[in-house]
Specification:
seven-stranded antiparallel β-sheet; single chain; alpha+beta; Alpha-D-Glucose-1,6-Bisphosphate, Chain A, domain 4; about 25% helix
Length: about 150
């Protein structure tokens, strides 16, 4: 649905990591591990249903901020969260995301699916997909540097 006030988008990113499911899960559940791949902008993390996460970063466009709430955490299977992205204090996307985890040939398949409401002006789908591609590549780099947990 598209109109002058907002529109809605959905995207999915699939990644296969050679690391075992326990190791990949820990990178989402343990604050120090998540900060190692998610970035220093992760200011708050309360990984539990109802818990809140907050972060941000600065770039040439200004101050980016996100606020996240966890709704479901099914150990080593699924995380369901909602988050907003703001630029210089103005929210421009609000999203529901599901991160699914499954064993895959000795490693882990991670499927990230996001449904968003885009509130213009916004970088919308392109910005969220670019951001999550970069974050999941950061996770891949962190996992490859830390050989514990490889199958």
């Amino acid at each position: 649905m598209t109109n002058a006030g907002q529109w809605h988008e959905t995207f999915t990113i699939d990644r296969i990591y050679p690391n075992c499911l326990d190791h990949v899960w820990a990178c989402w559940a343990v604050p120090d591990k998540k900060r190692a791949w998610f970035g220093d902008g992760l200011r708050q993390m309360d990984f539990r249903p109802g818990g809140v996460e907050a972060g941000g970063f600065q770039d040439a466009m200004g101050e980016h901020q996100n606020e996240t709430r966890y709704f479901e955490i099914s150990d080593r299977q699924r995380i369901v969260l909602a988050y907003s992205m703001a630029l210089n204090g103005r929210v421009h996307t609000v999203s529901l995301a599901t991160i699914a985890f499954a064993e895959h040939e000795g490693g882990t398949r991670l499927t990230y699916t996001e449904q968003m409401c885009v509130i213009p002006p916004s970088d919308g789908l392109e910005g969220r997909r670019h951001g999550w591609d970069a974050l999941l590549t950061g996770l891949e780099n962190y996992l490859s540097a830390d050989t514990i947990g490889h199958a």
